[in-house]
Design brief:
By secondary structure, this protein is an alpha/beta fold. It is built from 8 helices and 8 strands, in the order αβαβαβαβαββαβαβα. Helices cover about 35% and strands about 20% of the residues.
Length: about 260
């Protein structure tokens, strides 16, 4: 009887791994003060996992990053529930492969910085084309392969077309942002139904321009039920402002599932 009860619990308790993918494009300022709302939300619940996109200068900029970025990224990396990834824009395949690899090489250098832990675990490719052509597939496969050849912890690859992606792109990424738009345009299950079937476990839904007091619980529950991999709710379209109220609501909702 006890064995049957344990089996019942295993199947009765919903299992999910929804995490927060947060684009942290705001300059950190001294002592990471501009990031304080984010770090407070991270520390509030260590059971919630975060992947945080750092973006010093529409990419890595020069090596090493400035002192404020070093201190702030090191602080992020000190949390056990945080993985950091570096931002690289692809210009919908118009950025040259040489430029992509040069930026990735700079992020790789961060892992050997001796005075602080500023290593990133992968790359977030922005402005990704979702056009289903061989040219597009080859471009992003080469970019992904290059990340996987570098010393970037787990060599995580994230693509952001911000819209439904063709199935083949999922071969080259751990995560694809299939929705990036205002929360007011997000239609819950209807939006999820527009995605390529079979890839929800690699899909991120990233929303912005939300009211800070919006109830995200029903939205998160639907995402968990549908097996979505990651989520973000923000108040600002350009990821330059982070409401402590909305961050707290998002953490609570993701934690509750």
């Amino acid at each position: 009887m006890q064995f049957i009860f344990i089996i019942y619990l295993i199947f009765a308790i919903p299992c999910h791994s929804l995490f927060i993918l947060l684009p942290l494009y705001l300059y950190p300022d001294t002592s990471a003060s501009a990031w304080s709302n984010v770090t407070a939300a991270i520390a509030a619940n260590e059971n919630v996992q975060w992947q945080i996109i750092v973006n010093p200068n529409s990419g890595p900029g020069t090596y090493p990053p400035d002192a404020n970025y070093i201190a702030a990224i090191s602080k992020l990396n000190s949390y056990p529930n945080v993985v950091t990834v570096g931002y690289v824009a692809t210009g919908y395949t118009q950025v040259s492969y040489e430029s992509l690899t040069a930026q990735i090489d700079v992020y790789e250098q961060w892992s050997s910085y001796a005075d602080a832990d500023i290593a990133v675990s992968g790359i977030f490719f922005d402005e990704v084309s979702n056009t289903a052509t061989e040219e597009v597939y080859t471009y992003y496969q080469r970019a992904s392969d290059y990340v996987n050849s570098k010393n970037l912890a787990d060599s995580r690859v994230i693509f952001n077309p911000g819209a439904p992606a063709p199935a083949r792109l999922f071969n080259y990424a751990d995560t694809i942002v299939q929705y990036e738009n205002a929360l007011s345009s997000y239609k819950g299950g209807e939006t999820i139904n527009s995605f390529q079937p079979g890839f929800n476990n690699q899909t991120c839904i990233m929303t912005h321009s939300a009211a800070e007091d919006v109830d995200v619980n029903p939205l998160v529950r639907t995402m968990v039920e549908r097996g979505i991999q990651s989520v973000y709710f923000g108040v600002d379209c350009c990821y330059q402002a982070f409401s402590s109220v909305l961050l707290g609501s998002m953490v609570s909702a993701v934690s509750a599932g």
